[in-house]
Amino acid sequence: MSALLQARSLSRSFGGFTAVDDVSFDVQPGEVVGLLGANGAGKTTVIRMLLGLLRPTHGEALLNGRHPSRLGREHLGYVPQSLGLYTELTVRENLDFAAQAFGCEPMPLTGHLLEAQDRLVSDLPLGLRRQLAFVCALQHEPDVLVLDEPTSGVEPLRRARLWDQIREQSRRGVGVLVTTHYMQEAEQCDRLLLMSTGRLVAAGTVADIVDGTTAVAVASDDWSTVFEVLGRDGFALNLDGRDVRVIDPDEARLREVLAQHGIVATLRPVRATIEERMTMLGR
Amino acid sequence: MRAMIMKEFRELRRDHRTMGMLIGMPILLLVVFGYAANFSVESIPTATLGPQAQQAAALVTEVPQAPFDVATVDPGGDATTAEDLLQRNDVDVAIDTSQQPPVAYINGSSLFTAQTAVATFNRLGDRVTVEVLFNPDLKTSWVMIPAIIGLILTFIGTIVTSIGMVKEKQTGTIEQLAVMPIKPSTVILGKILPYFLLATLDMVLVTVLGMLLFDVPFNGNVAVFALGAGLFLFVVLGLGVFISTISQNVGQAIQTAFFFLLPQILLSGFIFPLEAIPWGVRWISYCLPLTYFTMVSQGVMLRGAPLDALWFPLIMLAVMAVIVFTGAVLRFRRNLAPGDGRRAKAKAAA
Amino acid sequence: MSVRDLTVRFGDVVALDDVSLDTPSGHITAIVGGDGAGKTTLLKAMVGLVPITSGVVDTPPRARTGFMPTGAGSWADLSVDENVAFIGGSYGLSGEALAHRADELLGRAGLSEARDRLAGKLSGGMRNKLGFCLAMLHEPDLLVLDEPSTGVDPVSRVELWRLISEAAAHGTAVVLATTYVDEAERSGSVLVLDQGRSLLNGRPQELVSGYPGEVVETSTPERSQFAWRHATSFREWWPDSAPPGSDPTDMTLEDVAIIESLRQESA
Questions:
Q1: Contacts of A274 in chain C (CB under 8 A)
Q2: Is the ipTM beyond the 0.90 threshold?
Q3: Pick from A96, C160, C186, C260: most CB atoms within 10 A?
Q4: pTM for the full model?
């Protein structure tokens, strides 16, 4: 089965600086693949090469088996972080333009977008703008969807709804590539790719990604003090609700420090999160 | 392709400033060039002096194709009176009949008027001696350079200032400023002062260069010049601030600044002499700050005019400075601290 | 420090409708809500950036308040040090005192190595940390942060929270708006806004334990108007008790926030 998107030993340097180093992966039809990594890890550069916006210095990026080209764009739906909408046009006008540009029929609107169809994009709140950007990218029924931080700054319910739409697309056979900083989203992907300083350092399920990193959740009445004390002692920390999570801890030392400060807390081993894996990579 | 065109049209329709430029500007240019563009002078304010002033007045009015408009007949006047009248820009030609043959003193700083007058008098041959004051060779550069100084100040003041101030709005940092314990007037002054200094430096540079390269004289009082320039700068910087309060981003600021700039270039006497512009359009010139600054700079540099001769343009500049600056500050204050008035009330109620 | 019965109207639009909130010193107060909920309007009303239609805002004067707007609030064309110098100078800090304070704050934020770099060239996470330092420079009594960790990478987010928690520990009243409900969970109290109205207000644990009904984790939700996608399956809320044979799970604050949105929608 031919992959919709393929990166083969993709590399890109800018002058002396290597932004992407020998990255290979693919996206199959019906899959949702999550691309993770800290800022500067090279995610955006990889995406730009897959989209044909940037030429690789080595390796190749393939869209439907061919190098990215203008014609190939018809099969691609892309929503950048900045959404790519025309703020001085209405909802309807943005849709019409996208439809005409891709040579398809404009999609009929429903719900809130329908109510807002004659409003200028600049008057719309972020949630609706994201919805519109999504619809513009889907109108021409692409085979591949590339979404850059699709739910950044969006509240939980909207986030869930957007993911309903993403899942719907993958059910229809569309291959989706998503970048995200939000770990709950990462869990919704079929497969994950973790990048760090230009390289692909881990791939697979959440378990595969965090393999090698452990964590202990410290639950107490006063997370703030625990956080401060452990932080000062040099532990790698993360927060989750009111739990302070310690990454790759020396358990004995951890108990010692807590005892020293007279802190009463319960410790329980938990599976590390992807953020925590990323924190350890950065150290 | 069609989609692209449609989209551009739709976006354009909503972009009022660009629309204004596309529609308004051609109309403005047409009107100006149609009416104002005129190098031929309709009337030359003249004075006749000396014992035969009356006769001279009668003669001069009769000369065909010469639009001498005798404003003053002064039998007691002489060469000194003539120079004085010209220096104060009260008249452009002063005929002194107390000398033999009579001498026609001509104001060289009104270039086209002078050229017309000189040509006319030359046709009268030896009967009249012609002396061109202030700009004896009738050099265009001598008349232009004082005006250009003003133009440069206008550019810097309006465009550069408005950009500098609107950038805060564009990046959103204006909210930061609004929340800090700095008064709006402090923000404005703090932002304007560097531009004021730079503009002053530029002005000195251009003036000196103009004098060196083109031999433009500086016959008058530096203090008077500085006063005029200072007032003018205030107007122009105030305009820059005002533009920044009605623009959301740098692009809009530049477009708006351009709207204010274009009429000044065309109608301030810089290209087309004021005297040649018919009154139907000339009233606009009298609303433009550059017009008054040019009066001051030409007066001081070429004619050595004293302070009391220039009271009119200086007062106008002062009035404009006060109006524009106050308006700009008020608008800016609203931009910066919309919540202030209410907040105070709410606290008082607490 | 508080806000009482605050209403803010912009023309016909009611941005905030009769909202009250306490923001005590040494505590973190979180404001949660979707688009148009009024989070930013509320924060701006607290710092005087927005005129109040009615109600009372009782907050310290400008010189004792620190504000970090969305978009980080630093001057992109200035370096980190130059930003500090400007803000410091504006608040009347200078010399030894300013240098000491700057060293301390920037050090804790992990920005010591980047002091000469232009603020515009910093990564998102670093810019937000800088924005935080600038807002804290003058040791304000009230710190107001508008979505401080949106768009920030996870590692920086934790570091930002360390700074936030330290500020609260030192007695500053911290108010922040966020779309990350797990951040609200950590706060001393939460205000949930929707369309300018206050839906819930109180301590996170109490809001959750006092919330009616039960949440069930399921792969086949029965009522779509009260179910939502979560991780690899769905969660569904039953207003009274979960049907027999189902698998009720612990309710979280995020569940509560989502359920409230759903209830508003079906109302």
A1: 154
A2: no
A3: C186
A4: 0.80
